[in-house]
Design brief:
The protein has a 6-stranded mixed beta sheet, covered by helices on one side. The chain is globular and about 45 Å long. A hairpin with a 2-residue loop joins β2 and β3. The chain is built from 2 helices and 6 strands. The longest helix has 18 residues. It starts with 8 loop residues before the first strand and ends with a strand. It has one domain: 2-Layer Sandwich (60s Ribosomal Protein L30, Chain: A). By secondary structure, it is α+β, with helices and mostly antiparallel strands.
Length: 130
């Protein structure tokens, strides 16, 4: 970082994406893309899905959209952090998640936490090379 800027990092923002706060959808730096937490919300910030399976799919779709804007895909992910409102949802979440990562399994951490109106939030780190 020099003079308050980081010339080697670039923000990945998406047209039509309304962030829920003051942040970028992702930042690319050092050959990696760091995706901010994605919830199961559509572009109008409405919750998508009523079950953990539907919400997991919608959150992963949002992760995939952000990665696509950075020139990457779900197969580029090396690390995922999952936030669940209740760890009792884990078996159902895990089944929906596993259906999306059939060939390569990224490293993953899952934690229980409070979320606003949704059951799951997912952030990710993807490798895109230098």
């Amino acid at each position: 970082m020099k003079n308050g800027t980081n010339a080697s990092a670039r923000a990945i923002d998406m047209a039509g994406h309304k962030a829920g706060g003051h942040y970028s959808a992702a930042v690319a730096a050092g050959g990696f893309v760091f995706v901010a937490g994605q919830t199961p919300r559509n572009e109008a910030r409405q919750i998508v899905g009523e079950t953990i399976e539907e919400q997991t799919g919608a959150a992963l779709d949002n992760v995939a959209r952000v990665l696509a804007a950075a020139g990457a895909s779900l197969s580029s992910i090396v690390k995922i952090t999952v936030y669940l409102t209740d760890l009792a949802l884990f078996p159902r979440f895990n089944a929906a998640y596993a259906a999306r990562f059939t060939d390569f399994k990224p490293a993953r951490t899952t934690v229980e936490c409070g979320l606003q109106g949704v059951m799951v939030e997912i952030d990710a780190i993807a490798y895109i090379g230098e």
